[in-house]
Amino acid sequence: MINISEVIETNKMIEQENLDVRTITMGISLLDCADGNLDRLCQNIYYKITKYARDLVRTGEDISKEFGIPIVNKRISITPISLVGGAACQTPADYVKIAKTLDRAAEELGVNFLGGYSAIVSKGMTHSDELLIRSIPQALAETKFICSSINVGSTKTGINMDAVRLMGEIIKETAEATKDNQSLGCAKLVVLCNAPDDNPFMAGAFHGVSEADAIINVGVSGPGVVKYALEQIRDANFEVLCETIKKTAFKITRVGQLVAQEASARLGVPFGIIDLSLAPTPAIGDSVADILKEIGLEQAGAPGTTAALALLNDQVKKGGVMASSYVGGLSGAFIPVSEDQGMIDAVDCGCLTIEKLEAMTCVCSVGLDMIAIPGDTPATTISGIIADEAAIGMVNQKTTAVRIIPAVGMKVGDNVEFGGLLGHAPIMPVNTFDCSRFVGRTGRIPAPIHSFKN
Amino acid sequence: MNKTIITVVGKDTVGIIAKVCTYLAENNVNILDISQTIVQEYFNMMMIVDMSRLKKPFEIAAQEMSEIGEQLGVQVKCQREEIFDKMHRI
């Protein structure tokens, strides 16, 4: 039987160390909603989403109350819209109409975000993909809950540089279209390489074509719990350090697995995966950077950061894998800047640069995430940053992403405030040397060779 | 069996267990185990109870117990046992 010290430990994690389940995300396939008539398509989409996810928010709240564990977000991911809207949409404005339909459905259901305003263009772009991409600035400016993601490359296909070039321009346009709101649109737009089909985390969540009709995916969190556990073994050797992270990740993930199974049973929707991620929030004590400091760095970004992060990321996976029956999504430590107070501090004191963040993305989940840069950064430079990040993902067979905010009217030294879980970000300096001739080349970068590894 | 863990945390005072147990008896909740300890000068009590004969919804009972706790100046939480079981047992 459970004893009192175990109960105290669990409740301490929840109450003092910010343990929570970050998101229950219901993936819904919209492939069967496709129609040549735009109005009918929108009706089909609205009807299917509101029918399937009708009880999602209430179920999440019930589980949260019964187990006494916060479930921060309830979200929906859908089939990449460019696959559904192709027959009905003739202009970018037609896609915006779908975005508004999705936004109404999300609002009606009370979910925090709906992801899947997406296109998969890793090798080439269809006309439909391009229309969707061109609609993104307006769609994100005129909706509240929609998240957009574009997959521009993969290990198997290489990198579609035409899409990379276009996305640099689209990110700039999105910043401009939402400039009255701190260029917030860019916080809901991510460019991916090797995007997974079952990611529950925003902004990159979509319901891939390899998935069933509907599925429940859960993202766990808990950087505060890992940090606290490491405080108890300060200065121990690497063996003890790694064992402690593994054990803690196991405990965190078991809670996620429980919540996922309960949600799946109550909603009558199959359980998909647990995403084993350390997802920080701007709350004090809920920071991945603070774990790196506890491991022994003065600040995130100091020499040793990449190694410490590699170790952390690997142990989280090793501990979490055994705790869950199915693992997927992005699974790893997230290093967003604006959403992590420890990362913000590291940038503010000059310790953490974009170049160091890029190195860190080689060994952890996702990539250059929630980074604010000067508003006058050229689109080609943004494309260059995307290409670099996609190349890391392509060569290392991992997911990488860029979610970057060229905040209109802001320069290095300013601070952009998004509020809530998105936090705030100091504007970071960007290398100002030009890459437009490289980005200006058309076509794609071929897939890398998978032998002769060096 | 519908096992639930009730925890009471706060400054020790007269009648905490009596108040909580009275409420449980009135609501048909059977107590399976009680243990208590002092952590950092705080009173910590844990009860394992069976709520299968509870007549009202779980969340109402949890809310009412939390209110009893507030009157006593302590925090009372009701959580289904599985969260602890999953985390601490393989």
Detail the topology: elements first, then pairings.
The complex is a heterodimer of chains A (454) and B (90).
Chain A: H1 4-16, E1 21-28, H2 38-52, H3 56-67, E2 71-78, H4 81-84, H5 92-109, E3 113-120, H6 127-141, E4 146-154, E5 158-160, H7 161-177, E6 189-193, E7 214-220, H8 223-231, H9 238-267, E8 271-275, E9 277-278, H10 288-295, H11 305-323, E10 332-333, H12 341-348, H13 354-361, E11 368-374, H14 379-396, E12 400-407, E13 415-417, E14 424-426, H15 436-439, E15 444-445
Parallel strand pairs in A: 1-2, 2-3, 3-4, 4-6, 7-8, 9-10, 11-12
Antiparallel strand pairs in A: 1-7, 4-5, 5-15, 6-12, 13-14
Helix pairs in contact in A: 2-5, 3-9, 5-6, 6-7, 7-14, 8-9, 8-10, 9-11
Chain B: E1 3-10, H1 16-26, E2 30-39, E3 42-50, H2 58-72, E4 74-80, H3 82-88
Antiparallel strand pairs in B: 1-3, 1-4, 2-3
Helix pairs in contact in B: 1-2
